[in-house]
## 1
Amino acid sequence: MDTIRHHENSILHKEEHLTSSAFITDIVIGMSDGLTVPFALAAGLSGAVDSNALVVTAGIAEIVAGSIAMGLGGFLAGQTEVEHYDAEQKREYWEIENLRQREIDETKEIFAEMGLSPELQEKVTQEIAKDKNKWVEFMMKYELGLEKPDPNQARKSALTIGISYAFGGMVPLLPYFFTSTPFEGLIWSAVTTLICLFIFGYFKSKATGQHPWLGALKVTLIGAVAAAAAFGVAKLFE
Amino acid sequence: MDTIRHHENSILHKEEHLTSSAFITDIVIGMSDGLTVPFALAAGLSGAVDSNALVVTAGIAEIVAGSIAMGLGGFLAGQTEVEHYDAEQKREYWEIENLRQREIDETKEIFAEMGLSPELQEKVTQEIAKDKNKWVEFMMKYELGLEKPDPNQARKSALTIGISYAFGGMVPLLPYFFTSTPFEGLIWSAVTTLICLFIFGYFKSKATGQHPWLGALKVTLIGAVAAAAAFGVAKLFE
């Protein structure tokens, strides 16, 4: 699930200045992950144990583990990102003072890659280099590819995703509370979770500009395959 | 864990042209995630059940679920990323043909944001707009923030991360094979896993340019907190 996250985020990030949309996106991401892994775990156990209480206990443990790993992990990673940006920024200021010619060459190089003629590279670089703050900002963005991180956004996102993961994880687990055998629980769990995965996949794909029905199918498929595989493997270890 | 991934990837990505280093990074990422969640799940169950076989079954089911969600999810997300790039590229070519003036204004706008004077904005834009392919490439990168995705890298990464997750997950689980009570298993699992998390945290932080000891501590802390919380909550549901 992490790799999906990464790709989606690289698309989603562009819109993250719309805070409310980022919030909704975080909820959708957390929920669809939360739906997938606890669902597959519960399905796997259903093939191997005969007590609903055990499935529920394991599911709860997984939800707690997963949402803490996501929430706390994201929180700490958010701090690290801010520190990383500040350190690189300080280094750029230092380089502009002390290795001015090298920085000028690097700036020219960036414009050369854009396809500018040597003459314009020269002129543009001279203009950029006039204002120290603007120059550093330019190097941060175009040499290092770093945008100034909002010190709160990453943490807010992490918490939203962590909490949504926990809520999402309850969907596949709840049927095991209200049924008497793991098999019965599994049936209801699969029905409700696959429907929810499809709905979330639809909105997630819409938010990232993908084809919504195809995206919904993919998300549902991942959940179904993960659950089927977990079921099969757990049966072997029964 | 997903949010960590996302932040780390935004840093790691810059170095991804070094394929061998990307490969090692993927292994480290998959393993440290695989160490965390199955560890916490097994720890949680150790507080609630009295059979090692159950802990092992649940752990295996989680590993299968998690690595499929990661591997297959990443594989499909990689395809989507390539499709997304191609669609946007096609749109840019169309816009350059049919909405030329708007595209010229957008290009100027990009240079205005870099801090160039109106005169140079004009000149630079004229030069960029001469070569259609270069112009589209420029718009893809600087207007949309999209780099041409390597059609294979995302999938390769996803598979490497998925497989590493599975291997990482075996570390916290193996002690339960060789001990007779879940409590005994938990002790050995915690010792070996926390050591491994510390080592992986160290290398992961080094690879992303973070402070290695501090990073190692953070990664270990996340694992420990997740395991302790899962243990506590599962005890309530015992």
## 2
Amino acid sequence: MVPHLVTALTGPTNELEQRILDSMAAIERWFRLEWMEHTPPFYSSVDVRNAGYKLAPVDTNLFPDGWNILTPAMLPLAVQAAQAAIEKICPEARNLLIVPENHTHNTFYLSNLAQLRRVFQMAGLNVRIGSISPDIKKSVTMDLPNGETITLEPVVRTKGRIGVKDFDPCTILLNNDLRAGVPGILEDLHEQYLLPPLQAGWATRRKSVHFKCFEEVSKRFGKLIGVDPWLINPLFETCEQVDFSSETGVEALTARVDLLLTKIRKKHKEYGIKEKPFVVIKADNSDGHMGVLTVRDSKDLESVRHQVLQHAAQAPTAGKGAGKTVFDVLIQEGVLTCERVNDGVAEPVVYMMDRYVVGGFYRVHAQRKVDQNLNGPGSSFVPLAFAESAHLPQPGIKPGASAPNRFYMYGVIGRLAMLAASYELEATDPEAEQYS
Amino acid sequence: MVPHLVTALTGPTNELEQRILDSMAAIERWFRLEWMEHTPPFYSSVDVRNAGYKLAPVDTNLFPDGWNILTPAMLPLAVQAAQAAIEKICPEARNLLIVPENHTHNTFYLSNLAQLRRVFQMAGLNVRIGSISPDIKKSVTMDLPNGETITLEPVVRTKGRIGVKDFDPCTILLNNDLRAGVPGILEDLHEQYLLPPLQAGWATRRKSVHFKCFEEVSKRFGKLIGVDPWLINPLFETCEQVDFSSETGVEALTARVDLLLTKIRKKHKEYGIKEKPFVVIKADNSDGHMGVLTVRDSKDLESVRHQVLQHAAQAPTAGKGAGKTVFDVLIQEGVLTCERVNDGVAEPVVYMMDRYVVGGFYRVHAQRKVDQNLNGPGSSFVPLAFAESAHLPQPGIKPGASAPNRFYMYGVIGRLAMLAASYELEATDPEAEQYS
């Protein structure tokens, strides 16, 4: 089920959208059967791009923040989903520890933590927030703009368990993507549930593995509803150890970019799509030092190379990775976004808890183009509200017909990406038997 | 989790309410563990009475109608809960058949069916409505005030399965309380899921069995949160084969009423409660011909006797039971309701799907008193809305403190009654091993 949220989309539903709406019963059944075989990630958010002719996920976050952006009306859905998740994992749960990002003095991020705390408190758990940051040596209480306070406590480890002072959780919820590596304090916790598992962190995760899994999911889904998987699947290539510090360092990348652009061009020709193909390059391990860059032609790579170097040098998350010039690169088919909110280019972000879509918002960037990454300084968020009751007759709509749930297709794409993430986490589970 | 709905209650939280709010984490965990052992009814609604000093369920409906009364904002919660329920029962489900009440030309009831259909359609099922009424010999399509239409089709049986023309459901949802008896067409359906099971129908069900189970639940819950179970449990007695046609026919009933009034009086004395005790008498099998009557003193029974006779003779559901004067009677401790909506006496009704509270409304009756049954001609419904975000500072409330969820306690009482119903259905399951 996907809540009926108001999207910015207007105009008639296109063929792909209509196919998805018409196949709702088959799609929901298929998801139900998939979730019998696969465990959904505990929570996730997916950035979706809708080019009209194509609708695809471009990023799947397994440590979603931004929960504070969702409207208050979404809270009960999130709580109900959280409760369903907890019931499956640890029905006897009493105490939940949230482990936040280490750099947590940002009010916006703290408000996200407060919202997550509220969700799990309302699900009936005692919740504390335990930081693994070396800077948090004792409890720190901070005020939030809405009058709430939030207390970060240092995580302590005792034998096989972690907790905070006088608080022994059975479940630990990571809201920290571990991109700096897995700290020892989180390793070998055999007696506690750690969610999501460590291999979901960016120390292990690779975007290319995720999109390889998504390719598999999109093939199966395409077969289910009778569409070409390409219509929902962004093509990709990878290029390892690209050294952006010299022209020769990006030669292999240039070839791969050309290869991918050729593939996309072929598809555009097949469908009579007029838009010029482009690709997006980003670090396969999500390293923020590289940035996310749009490449419209392999001839542009020299200028892109300089942008990467500049970005890497100026990266605000400077530290041990600053100045790095060598990256494993994901080259992803660019998907235009045709959604606009208040004249700004927009893309929907779908939030999920367990297998349920619980809300969403538009990420909007007034200064960026339809083929650029919108996630960066200057972006803003427009929460999606529930659609007004479609039960009442509306002008121009024939009696009894209710407005279609345009958000439904985004919820489907979000869940397909979540399903791919569950394949991915199975494939990378160090304790699993060989994945074949 | 219980959604935060606006209640009519104002004033400080009393001791019982505060105890329930303070014990939220323990209560939610307890429910989670109970649902590991017991299967919740597929759906249910519970009438709750709040006397201030006492808060108790007075009726538990296992075939709830009135889904159309809930606000549209509740729909996503109901859908999510329905999906969780379907996943557990029959993940491969495609088709669901709703079997409605037989007298279904009432627009209000048809709107309820339309809303149930919507819930399960949004959960991803194909839904049809199949009537077992002898009056429905071919498909009938009726218009609803909101422009929707609803089609009732005659149920057909083929070997061990039922369905409607060209529609073979795997799950059958009864919205028919079978008070006229279980029709043969529903018996021995071994290959389909029939929800709720046949023993939930009033042909089998007895209120006294439900309240016996509730007594057990209330004792365990009382121990959990450290309160006298009486504070949530309405005492009761039964009296079989009461013949209201003669004075001598109600002698045994008089004695039982006296006995129960004495028990309540003792409890009132223990707690210093000033209110005069009263009891409510009703048919143990929910037979509408008897009515639901308030008895303040056993001396009133002669007048009550005449009311029952009058009610039985005039009962609008006249038919084979009209003119009946002998009933098995449940004598239930009366619980005042101190809630008022628009100056009318009101009682909350809590709606649940699977284990989740998904909404509620107030049943209001302007012409009735605080110690009377509100469910009758002249009653109206006031849907409960979600509370406005309690995250923002509110005048007079200290920063960071959010308004308590006053609806929470109603959700707890509703779920306790639902748990009692699950004990009850286990105890009356004809296929279960001996219940001890």
## 3
Amino acid sequence: MWIYEANLEYDAKVSYADPRMAQLLIAQYGGPNGELAAAMQYLNQRFDMENKRARQLLVDVGTEELAHLEIIGVTIRKLLKGIKPMQARELGIASHYVEHENGLFYVNPSGNSWTADYLKHVGDPVADMTSNIAAEERARAVYEHLISLTDDPLVQDTLRFLRERELVHAARFKEALYIIKEEMNTRKNFYQY
Amino acid sequence: MWIYEANLEYDAKVSYADPRMAQLLIAQYGGPNGELAAAMQYLNQRFDMENKRARQLLVDVGTEELAHLEIIGVTIRKLLKGIKPMQARELGIASHYVEHENGLFYVNPSGNSWTADYLKHVGDPVADMTSNIAAEERARAVYEHLISLTDDPLVQDTLRFLRERELVHAARFKEALYIIKEEMNTRKNFYQY
Amino acid sequence: MWIYEANLEYDAKVSYADPRMAQLLIAQYGGPNGELAAAMQYLNQRFDMENKRARQLLVDVGTEELAHLEIIGVTIRKLLKGIKPMQARELGIASHYVEHENGLFYVNPSGNSWTADYLKHVGDPVADMTSNIAAEERARAVYEHLISLTDDPLVQDTLRFLRERELVHAARFKEALYIIKEEMNTRKNFYQY
Amino acid sequence: MWIYEANLEYDAKVSYADPRMAQLLIAQYGGPNGELAAAMQYLNQRFDMENKRARQLLVDVGTEELAHLEIIGVTIRKLLKGIKPMQARELGIASHYVEHENGLFYVNPSGNSWTADYLKHVGDPVADMTSNIAAEERARAVYEHLISLTDDPLVQDTLRFLRERELVHAARFKEALYIIKEEMNTRKNFYQY
Amino acid sequence: MWIYEANLEYDAKVSYADPRMAQLLIAQYGGPNGELAAAMQYLNQRFDMENKRARQLLVDVGTEELAHLEIIGVTIRKLLKGIKPMQARELGIASHYVEHENGLFYVNPSGNSWTADYLKHVGDPVADMTSNIAAEERARAVYEHLISLTDDPLVQDTLRFLRERELVHAARFKEALYIIKEEMNTRKNFYQY
Amino acid sequence: MWIYEANLEYDAKVSYADPRMAQLLIAQYGGPNGELAAAMQYLNQRFDMENKRARQLLVDVGTEELAHLEIIGVTIRKLLKGIKPMQARELGIASHYVEHENGLFYVNPSGNSWTADYLKHVGDPVADMTSNIAAEERARAVYEHLISLTDDPLVQDTLRFLRERELVHAARFKEALYIIKEEMNTRKNFYQY
């Protein structure tokens, strides 16, 4: 179980409202390579990951991704602050307003609802941990795309912080994959099939 | 942000492995009215719920639903314990095994991946809180269906505990709706349109 | 069975073509809280709603929502009248044109196809009727958002008429819920689980 | 707009409860080639079908498909009559029960929610009417599959009636296609591109 | 099995980068009536199409549609050439950039992921071949829409070439349908049901 | 473009009809980690993979996966040979029969339609190649699950052959990732953000 603590892992600031950036940033809230996807993939895998250290890592990183989801959510809300309906319409981003006003929803920038089809889990520790490393690499790349889509130095700071965390997670998943493979003693099940 | 605490909110026990029940119980893991859906709906709504007490309630209940998701996950794993591939095939539940072995995934009993299309959020406090009350009523009904689909008294105990919690949540959301309406002073925005 | 009558429930007029508003208004044609969703939810629930008055209400309201769907469809077509491909491209709304020309399709403003995942039905009269009240509240809120996204007084008139109808439906579903609860005599099934 | 008339287009009878057949028959309720899909495709296309007779035909057939949807719904309910939860579980069809009890939902026999992605509409009268002819041929084929999956002569009677109607619709759509092509005077737009 | 040959079926040229057209043209890459949909529908149907000539035709046309998919992919890449992130943002098409940079993905112009729900296959040769004729008619109509959405004569040339091929495919599927019906000797199975 | 050659990459044999295995094996035809998913992911990535050797590898492996898709398709058809409707119903696998007779469709064993949401492509060579390695590891694991779900030695032979190919592909993608990283000279873009 989880305890909620009312402070953000990173103090998400913005220099000015920027609704178009809000609409793009939602990629990391409800997109295929975003924080919800990461959190849900790791927290789901832990139930059958037999290696204890790997399992603990999945819980730790999964829980941190929930905190990142919160950072993204707060940032998007600040980027949307004070936007009126007709402004949203002028900017070409009123599709979101119609359904959710200036609130959030688990969608990607094109407005597609988040789906568990984005996630990977086959119940094989090598395959699953490799999927996690790939997930972190993709999240990193999407953060890089987002950094190139804003001029706001404060938003860039937040995005750089989150990008760094993905690199750390990728490194830790690589260690876990090494441990898992060691434990399997050079893949005994290689010979089984 | 959240802190993970390594103990379950309820000590989920089962009397015996029951893979068919596992396949049905997954409704509360990844189904349209399950715990993931509840957690995600409330945690998403909090970002734009202006009433402070209602917002806090959304965080509290959303966080508890994550704990319930964990209870369901642990129970499913126990119900699947020791099941071999050919047994799964005999029981007609190998569709899940092929893709996820005896692990979990965010699907409903028919194997459909969870989607945010299940969730409701329009950014209107009255509409959103009413959606939450409805969500709790549906979760209650699904728990009642599940109770009638097992003879295992330990599984039934867990399901009854979770059903009770949904009733509590529904009651608290009704209070919040009352407060929101009071605050709006008998719906001033009624006259606005 | 249904008989079609060739006149609209409300004389849907527009002051001028407004293709961007057409693209937003489609929320009530094929969106998660739109008229198709309402019609389909109620007409589906009637098959197992045991209370006779509630069942009749579901048929009546469901049938009226089909009429509203028609009003929305006619309005969108008027808002798109005379729009040429290159104009659609200039306005940033040609994504729809490519696939459907100036016709309609069951999508939300972001172009997502309508899905029954939007609908709620668990076969419990209390839960289902509560889901319907919530559906009407959300439809009302979306109409309010749409009213704020246009300056055309004729379109606003139609939207206000439809919004009013949602309030009436919500009130009638609340009555039905009261009747259902009375009939259950303070929820006997409360003690069953 | 539509007027509801409280009698079925065909007196749908069943000889005995047959929950497995109910689960298969739902193909014609919420499946890709079922009655909802047919009704929604035709009623959507009418908004931009310029030929008056073709447009009227779309309304007529679309409205009749709604009546067929009702026939299917009533039949499924009869096939499920009296089924208890544990029976549903024994029969391997409890996935539906968990989410919807013995009620209906717009799904195919595998439990996938209906989606407008099944529908075809490109705003070109020749292409759209051809899509409708194909839709009727598929519906016919699915009825033939269903007839071969039951021994109940009363259910077969209903299915044969509905299959016959699809043949009639296909014939009328072929006539409409002929008229549309005539009107285009051997496809003037052939030379346009 | 297939052998890849490193040249295009048609020399896809563009006069200038046109990222908005790229975003629309993706309809024929990952949209419901695009080349992937065509290829996948025909290659899937061949496995149970009993008439030998019809089966061979499905393989031939399916394989050609893969070549068309390649032509579309190359054209989109040329239309996106040299586009910088901030330019994409200015043009209102950065939603794609965030997730895929200037690469491709199987989506329609609204950004919806391709799904096999677009495809038709019921295992009845008449119904399936009719579905294919309809698919070609729709593809033709979408090419016509695209031609009207660009002023670039080179892009129009490619689109006209592909449109012509769809007309050829439609004609060949009509011949195959005729052969299939002949073989069935005026539909013996008409009397079977 | 591709040339079709009318022989299979591996002579797919089966010892006996086994419709339940057919229903499970479809995981590799239309499932999230199946051959269609692999082929489509690699063939899509090649359009923007700048390293020439990596790009050629994507085309080669993507084309081979299409051949594997064909092997799976042929095997499923053999496993379904001679199955009558009522047999399918008895075996609990008639959901597929209703919609597709004994033909194929791009679904997973639970009957969910294939979606491009399964695929990964962010336009970053390191992230994309890592995603491919993970895809191959998952495909391997799913083949291992399938091998454990059949006793037919001929089907096992085919599955082992295909599993071996995935290991070869994984190894080649690892080489390509190494080359890509070398070329980036220890990730210059690491310092860019």
## 4
Amino acid sequence: MQMNEMILVSVDDHVVEPPDMFRRHLPPRWRDVAPHVETREDGSDVWVYDGNEIPNIGLNAVAGRPEDEYGMEPTSFDEIRSGCYDIRDRVRDMDANGVIGSMCFPSFPNLCGQLFSRSSDLEAGLAILQAYNDWHVDEWCASAPGRFIPLMLPPIWDPEAMAAEVRRNAAKGCHAVSFSENPSKLKLPSFHDEHWDPFWQACSDEGTIVCLHIGSSSKLVFTAPDAPIDVLITLQPINIVQAAADLLWSPVLRKFPDLKVALSEGGIGWIPYFCDRVDWIYSRHHAWTGQDFGGRLPSEVFLERIVLCFIDDPSGVVNLDRMDIDRVCWESDYPHSDSTWPISPEMLWPAVGDLNDDVVNRVTHRNAMHHFRYDPFAERPREECTVGALRASAADVDVTPRSVGRRLEKKTGSADLLSIPHKGMT
Amino acid sequence: MQMNEMILVSVDDHVVEPPDMFRRHLPPRWRDVAPHVETREDGSDVWVYDGNEIPNIGLNAVAGRPEDEYGMEPTSFDEIRSGCYDIRDRVRDMDANGVIGSMCFPSFPNLCGQLFSRSSDLEAGLAILQAYNDWHVDEWCASAPGRFIPLMLPPIWDPEAMAAEVRRNAAKGCHAVSFSENPSKLKLPSFHDEHWDPFWQACSDEGTIVCLHIGSSSKLVFTAPDAPIDVLITLQPINIVQAAADLLWSPVLRKFPDLKVALSEGGIGWIPYFCDRVDWIYSRHHAWTGQDFGGRLPSEVFLERIVLCFIDDPSGVVNLDRMDIDRVCWESDYPHSDSTWPISPEMLWPAVGDLNDDVVNRVTHRNAMHHFRYDPFAERPREECTVGALRASAADVDVTPRSVGRRLEKKTGSADLLSIPHKGMT
């Protein structure tokens, strides 16, 4: 296999929602309370909902921006690449990067819809969340058949409503849901509480994979108020190990044996170390902690049930034989600052080029197709889905960085993030 | 090389301080305020200092206890193995485990002496801390020449006093100091503040290695109040990645190029992933964050300056070629629950047995000797320092688990730890 023969499906990208998204999907009764976009005096665009303003942070839409113009400042739609919010340009940006399929996490509602859970009127919140899901499935994804894996948001304030929304979306062909890596940090019950059982049961019944994205606890790990932002950017992905441990030692995986969970943007380089660690703890401590995995090891259960996801992780790829090769998926993370766009194939190939073709195919697309119930080949022949074929069709897409002429005056520190509540920066 | 030919030096063990420790080392003026041991109504022994009671938590002294009697309950001296606090029995327990050298972290003062920093009279606090260090160096370590690497505690409330104490102890041959993995969490300035420069300078001048032990921020990472204790035990070591990132992106390593830092009990399995990550972040973000490592990569600076430490970490050992083989040290962690005592050689050998002898010697003892300025061979011939030789001399030591007839009535959850302030459980 050559680099251009890879078929790339990314199970982690992000949409910056376009201002008109609710127009066709919200019943008239709720139109006055729907989130809408306003332009602030500084020229930045914000979503406004229920008295809250949600800016679009620079690092969340830096695709196509020069690296010395990255930053934490709020942005306007005309400062970000149109592929962030325009579905036609998004598809062309995917083509230019050789990516056939993509699953898009939300931006302004937060990673698992936390914003809607803070609605003063939760009936309105549910209607708006459902409109969001309808827009995502019926408009964003449906505009480009065969190019997107739909991903729904759950009404996290009500497990029965979550279950109903999972079933409603599954009936429409959406089999992935974004949930919180740690609902306890959102002041909701933890994974250890049976509170969530109706939700887990619905996902299990419908074959809907639960995606826990880094940052979806709305809690960043701060080392110190004066720590430079590099510290936070370093720690953000590896903090998913907290969710991994929480979930593994909780009853969830053992109680719902058909449930699938993905650690979105979680990386894979830490997995062998984590597996060694949990098995040692189990052997040493289960006699007094009461944990029981039957005749199995915790690492076996973990690797068998968790879909692992990585963007660019050479030390993880080297250790693929310590994971379940059928449960490792690739990500592009467009348009965030960790994204490898527009050179994803060039970044990925050195890590996987020496593996056998079957392993490359699993990691680049087959595992994603299986676990997320997605089939691009139903829409176009396989040979037209390769990196080379897609890029050939997008030779006219300009991927050179475009300056917007703004540059931070001061260094951004971790403490600057404290003033931007409820936003990840992944 | 065979297993019995290894020479083992552990750079992380723990002493449970004996009740009479201050008798010979504290000026009369302070004897009335010195910490002392009292027995509570439940039969457990506690240290009492300045109105605070500090229990000895079960997991901190489980060596020799059956695994179904592990737990978080307070203990008394007669319930724990005498090697925890008695220097003669400690040496015999080391012999029985084939360990020639050991560096012992404190117990009741917390990992970097936090207890003394909370003294209502800091003049008394300093006198008591100095007495602690004198006991540790002149009594605990000096009782068994050639068997211990001395480790001092710093008066963390005053960087100038820290520098003076570093110099005072260096003159006595102590070249290791325990400091906090994150002083910001102790309500002190962070690594990013020049506040600590006198301390870093003294350590740099004196060739004193700064040991950052997991848990020395006095902050545990809790996922949820109802998370089982297994979650916390899993996450405790990997949280050192926070200190690693904090230190690497701070000015410290670049400002003090001769300073050495050890990540005590930090493990090594996560290192290759961490190195990939920081280099990617540097290449992608330094243009706007302003980080500058000259012509080098952050991972190069990290690996060149940080001494890495592991107890039992098979996936880390497999990736030793991604680290600096001259800066990886082994640990035993006696008598904590992560310890491999009394089968440390049997646990370590399968991981290192296939490496060449030179690498095994570096990891098991040569690196420790170099970075911690310790030389057991000055006291006894090398051939008498091997696992086989030491164990042959300790054939009469009984290492079978000894029941104390107590067993937890209920499961311990993470929340139970919240009631035990300032204690790690590593």
